[in-house]
Amino acid sequence: MTASTTTPAAVAAAPRRTRPFGRSGPTGLLLRWIVFAVAVALWQLATYVAVPEDDKMFFPAPTVIAKRMYELWLTGPASHLFLTPAATGNILPSIGRMLAGWGIAVVIGVGLGVLLGRSRRLLDYVDPLIQFFRAIPSPALIPVFIVLFKLGLTMRLAVIVFGVLWPILLNSIDGARSVEPLQLDLARVFALKRFERFRLIIMPSAAPKIFAGLRVSLSMSIILMVISEMVGGTNGIGYTLYTAKDSFQLPDMWSAIVLLGILGYTLNALLLWVERRLLAWHRGARRVEP
């Protein structure tokens, strides 16, 4: 009787997960910028081929918009980082208002959402109110906010906070409820204190869904920032867009529109960068799943 032996060749190799082509890394970055460059080139071509000469002022080419953006915002003195008064007086205040409103909503939404997610009874009591108020568009409440806060910074912050709060709140509730009961049982076995359970178990488990809500709310905050500045505003990107439209300065209007797209892309990229570093463990865990 001979003992059975197993050669290395007989051992089934574990399947290796390959990274989809072009998803990340230098190749993925290059492909994304190629797609962007092709889209801009098609836009440029369409303005010369498909747009009649009389309508070119309504649909300017990307080169015309880029030139106007440079003239509007990047021809200032070197001591001001080449920013013009139009840039410092409109772009920077808009970004400040947007980030302030979004930040307030993050603090309220995450804090309240985790609390409600860990208390089923409390959530049952307040869920009808949440479903009622989240169905109301924030711009519809602008007259109410004007009566309450008058025209000014507080009114604009209220518009942003009310609109972006709900995706943060709902995702935080969902994330806090998704904690595995086994993890909480282990925490009790090891006699972890309540704050330690919150820091080591609840927040890490809820973080992926919380960040999903943050990404959605960040885009919404830009939209609501523009809307709030169009109503009785005296500066800001939304104010620039509104006055350019009224005065028929269409290159200025398109410059503001493109600037909003650039702002949204940049802020989303920064948030994704933060998410990847804070949740690297989460992506690693998903990669080793069968």
TrEMBL record:
Keywords for the protein's UniProt record, in alphabetical order: Cell membrane, Membrane, Transmembrane, Transmembrane helix, Transport
Subcellular location, record wording: Cell membrane
Domain called ABC transmembrane type-1: residue spans: 91-271
The keyword Aminoacyl-tRNA synthetase appears for this protein: no
UniProt topology in membrane: Multi-pass membrane protein
GO biological process: transmembrane transport
Signal peptide extent: none
Protein name, per record: Nitrate ABC transporter permease
Native source species: Actinoallomurus iriomotensis
